[in-house]
Amino acid sequence: MRTVSIRDANQQFSRLIKEVEAGETVVITRQGKPVAQLSPRPLNRLDDPEVRTAYERWSALLHARKGDGYRVGNITEEDKYGPIED
What we know:
The chain is an alpha+beta fold. The chain has helices spanning 6-11, 13-21, 49-64, 77-81; strands at residues 2-5, 26-30, 33-38.
């Protein structure tokens, strides 16, 4: 993790962005105290075609099985959490 002052960050912004694109995190300071952080965005795994295909197949299977369960009635708060004390 690299630390730079606001002034240096302003002067080197393009270079800092390239570092962040490469996976680096940059902390920006004012008078030696951290005030901001530049970090790579989390990967969206659904952008991966294999992951997207697997997700879509799983989702379709889940929706196809939606009616397989059975209901015996409504669940109350007491059913979920036990007897309610006053």
